[in-house]
Write a structure and sequence with these properties.
Length: 173
Amino acid sequence: MQLGLSESARFATAEEARFRIAYPNSLPRKSRVIALDEPSVAMLRTLADMPWSGAHFLRYVNAKGATDSLHMLPVDAVLEDLEGKRVSLADELADADIIVMVTTAGTAAEAAEVIGNACFVRNKLATGLVRNAEGISAEDLARTLTTMRPFAAMLVVSNGDEYVGEMLSALRV
């Protein structure tokens, strides 16, 4: 044992390196990043060209109504990938590890309710990422946050589009 080194420094020594496992400690995540409004779709198009590990970038189109007579809340929706192919929210959530909803402050975020309910019934957590663009009033931001809060396990406000990419990287999307 070397004296005078912090625990972190000691574990970085060649002596300790022989105990490291030589392969990644986890499988790539299956991420779904869903834009809830058109400005967010445009921003996701620029991010989609970056190297991601199995992420699907999607756009919310509309909710699918409940098919039973109990008039339950909708827990499925029509989504569209960035090439325009329509897919089901339920199918996309089936094997997803991370769900991120992206919207712009001041826009309607009612889609968060449908996605949040769909995640809840499938025991999945959703993250909400609200883009606070320049010129958006505090009231518009508050309204969007209030709409999304019940449906996101974590809710983050971004003051710039570059932060969205950094946040997705931090989540290992």
